[in-house]
Every structure is written in C-alpha cells, then in structure tokens.
Amino acid sequence: MAMRTPTWLVGGRGLAAQAQALCRVVAPDAATGPFYVVLRPDLPAEYQGGEGGALALTSRHLDLMLRPTLERQRRWRGRGPTILLDPVAIAADAGHRPRPSRRRVFPAVAVGVVLHELAHIVITGPRDDEVEPDPALIQFGRLSLAADLTGTEAPTNGPGAAVPWRGHEWPFIRIALYLAYRAARLGLDVAARDVFDAREYELSPTHRYVLALGNEPEHVAGRPITKISQVPPPTEFVELWQADVRGWMSQHEITHELPMTLAACGRRISIPTAGQDAPVMQKGTESDVEGTVQRVGIAAQGS
Length: 303
Prior knowledge:
Layout: H1 13-26, E1 36-39, E2 56-57, H2 62-65, H3 67-72, E3 82-85, H4 87-95, H5 102-124, H6 135-150, H7 170-185, H8 192-195, H9 206-213, H10 216-219, H11 235-251, H12 257-269, H13 286-298
Parallel strand pairs: 1-3
Antiparallel strand pairs: 2-3
Helix pairs in contact: 4-5, 5-7, 9-11, 11-13, 12-13
C-alpha cells in the first residue's frame, strides 16, 4: 500500500520522528535496532551559529558524538545509525525555490536530505564487529563536528571541497537513486535530484545517472537495500562514473598538498578505533589520493 506524503513539520520532535519513520519504511533492513534522527537546534550552544550550511549529515560515530543529547532527551537505546538534520537550513533551502511550489517544497527537500544521509548509512554497512573508539577520540569527533557545523573548517565534500565528490562515488550514487525510486513508489513526492544533485559535486547531471542505471531499481525492487552491492552495476552506469572522474582529473592539478587535505577530511569523517589507525590522525600519504581519486574511477570494473 502506498503511503501518503507526510506534512513535514519545520521543527520540533515531530520532524525527527517522521524522518526516522521514513528510513524504516524505505529501507527497513538498514534501519533495524536503534536508529536516531537528531535536530541541530537541540544540540548544545557550541554546535550553533556560524555559516556551516549543511542541511544534514551522518558519520559512523555520530551516535557516540551526540549521545549526551540523546541521553538528555531520554532516547538513547544503544549504538545505532544517526542522522543530524538542520530544519532551519532545510527551510531556507526550500525558501529559494519558486513561490508557487513552496508549500510542497519543504517536504521534498526534507525527504531528499534524509534519504541522502540514509544512502551513506547503507554504504557504510553494519557495525556489528566494530571496536568502540577511545573517549578522547570521541571528544575529538565532537570538536570536529562543531567546526563543520559552524563553518570553521572547509567542507569535506561538495562545493568548496578539495575533491567535491569524495564520499559520493558510484556505489553511493547507485544507492541514492534506489532510495529515491523506492520512496517514489511508496507515494512520496521526491525526485532523484532531491536525493542527490550530482552537479553540486562536479559530476554529470543526476538525470544522466538515472538513465544509465536504467530499469535496474525496478528489476531488483524486492531485494533488501543492503544487498544491492551484490548485484553488478550496469556497464553504462560504470562508464558514466569513470568518464566523470577522468574529466574532473583532467581539469584539476593533483598537488602534494592534496593527500594532507584528504587525510584531514578523513579524520573529520571517521574516528579511528584502534592503535593501528593512529597514523591517519597525523599525516596523509600518496595512497590517500590514489584511493580517493584514481581507484574509485576504476573500482567498478571488478564488481
């Protein structure tokens, strides 16, 4: 049965509850157990203000970073995927859309950003065997999160980032398009571009990726979203991604400073969890560039 497009609230606990429900309906196998959506206005003062401008974000250890807020709200039920939403930023983004459609634009933007972050959660995968980071590193993560939200640090991806499409490689794009398709089938008023606007990441327009993916989302509609990676992607989809990466590399100089920049981004995205991860806290290497720029361009060949 198709679900009705909800009347999304701009703020308040209702928005968080609606976002959590959306994730559980669209991707039930990715939202099992504890699953949290936290609103930025509910965070302490150090996370407020500035010009960070992110509509939403997630990371593998965001639940641990936001645990004090979840405990204060009496919502903590153990570790689980977490999304941070900024309803003020979402409303501002919706306000830039044409006025005749503004009444319906907040739901589309809200659904899109939630599904975008859900795609990251799907790509990250399960955390069953993960070792919990040291408390000092969790605190480091909180400081980095505050810097990201307030605009103190440069963005790790998207406009203004060293590699705009970092973290949004072809596996992410594929899952994002799947989520958009499944949400639309449930009756939600959301388009693929609402979930992933590829042009913001200096890639080909989203509609080209939709066309390259073809009818694959329909053919595997019954497969759990967490198992999609087991299905080889269409050749056209892979070739489009590879062409985009080659095009980006031909227009950008790969300098010696880029490995350090990518390593710094990595420290802000994922907290090291063991002693062998410590070197990434100190410096970047050439492999960072190879793994982020070169390898992702050809990784699909072995899928």
